[in-house]
Every structure is written in structure tokens, then in C-alpha cells.
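Example record used in the benchmark description.
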Amino acid sequence: MKIELKADIKQLTKKLNKVQRKQIPFATAQAINEVAFKARKALMAQSKKKLDRPTPFTVKGFQVVKAKKTSLTAIVYVDSKRAKYMQFQIEGGIRTPNKRAIPVPVQKNVALNKYGNMPRKKINTLLNNVKIFSGKPKGQGRNANAPAGIWKRTNKNNKLKLLVSYEPFVKYEARFPFYKIVTKVVESTFEDTFKKHLSKAILTSR
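Model output (C-alpha cells):
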């Protein structure tokens, strides 16, 4: 998504002389970069509120490509290592695995992690229990059409209880307003930030 600055730089700089005008690209780049890092800071802060107990790895995943006076564009983005799971938090959508089905807990005591996934370590911990197995129940009757997943043998007549279902896809709802957060920071801070950097650049101009 591209976010365009609405500040009227021509209006803000119309009274400058020729020498002062030479400082506009430098001041603009400095302002864009400061606002970009403010947006990054806001994203980090909001991720702790909007996401479910995000790890420091996730919180630090927001990065900035800085603008230059010859290229007045900064990029605020999610690092590629985090983007694989953050895209579902930002935009929602359907996640379909390439090789195997997605484990989805069906019992409250078996929860997803903060990425909306069930970690392999958690699955391995469950399967270390001799009463728990992975796969599809064998036999006839009530187990004939039972889905594949992680099952537990209960103490009641050795009855089976489904803990985790193996699903071909999982649908995610968008819950992290990445674009809204960045847009709000840009629209509320750029003009004042530009004025500050322009004044500073003019004072040091020759």
C-alpha cells in the first residue's frame, strides 16, 4: 500500500529565496525519515496491544528504508521473516499449507500461540503422552468417519476425545491495522516535522 503525503510543500516554502529553496529536498528527506521512524515506533507499541502476547521477535519486525534528498520516499514494512505470518494478522485471508494440513485445537486447554499457529513443540509435547496419538481412529461405529487429528484415550471406556483437528486451510480475520496506524502518524506529524527540519536547514545554509 502506498501512502501519499498531503502536506502542501509549495505553500509552506513559497516565501523562500533561491538559496533557501536549495534546502527543500534535504529538509523533506529528513522530515520523511523522522515520520517513518515515528510510524515504526507506533507500530511496535500497537502490536503489543492488538496482538496476543507478541514476542520481541515480532515487535521488532517493523523496519524502515530511509528516504534520500534524491529519492523522497521512505518505506515502512514488515521484515520478510515475520511477513509470512503477519500478513494474516494485517490483511486476514486463508492460509493453505504447501505440504501438510494445519493443526487447529478444538479443546480450550490446547491453544494457538500468538502467531495464530500451533507450534510443533506443543504437538510433540502432546504426543509424548501414551494416551494420545496422531492420525485417524481405526474401527467402525462412531469412529468410522472421524477426522484426522490428535486424539486422546479417556478413562471412560477407553473413549476417544479429539484435541486437535487437521484442517486443509485456516481462515484469519484482519486484526492489526498496519496501514491505519502508519497513515495516522503521517497525517498528524509530517507538516510540523517538515517545518522543523526546513528551519534548521535554512539556518545552516550557505
